[in-house]
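Methods — Computational structure assignment.
A single polypeptide chain was analysed. Its primary sequence is given first, followed by the predicted tertiary structure written as C-alpha cells.
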Amino acid sequence: MPCLDISTNVNLDGIETDSLFSDLTKAVSQIVGKPENFVMILVKGSVALTFGGNKEPAALAEIVSMGGINTEVKRKLIVTIGSILQNKLFIPRTRFVLKVFNATTAQKSSKL
C-alpha cells in the first residue's frame, strides 16, 4: 500500500482538497502500479516550515510503498506530485522535496 504524506506551510482553508486528493491518488496509483483503493494520502497544511530561510510556499513529502519503486518511478513521482502541488497549492516545484522509500528494499537490507 503506497502512502504519501505531505506537509506544507500553505493554509488549506478555501482550497479544493477533494480534487487535490483525487489527483494525488490517481497519480500515485498509476506511477507505482498499485490500485487506487490501496493508496493513502495525508496532507497537513499550515505547518511551521521554511525552505531556503524563508516562509514562501513550500512542501516536504514522503512516500512509502511495498514494492513498485525504482529510479524511473522516483523521477515520475517527483515530477508529477510537484506539478500537482504547483497547480493546486501554488507551491513552486523548486520548493518541493520528496523522500521516497521502498518498504520491501528496507526490509531486505535490515536482514543483512
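Note: Residues 108-112 have pLDDT under 50 and may be disordered.
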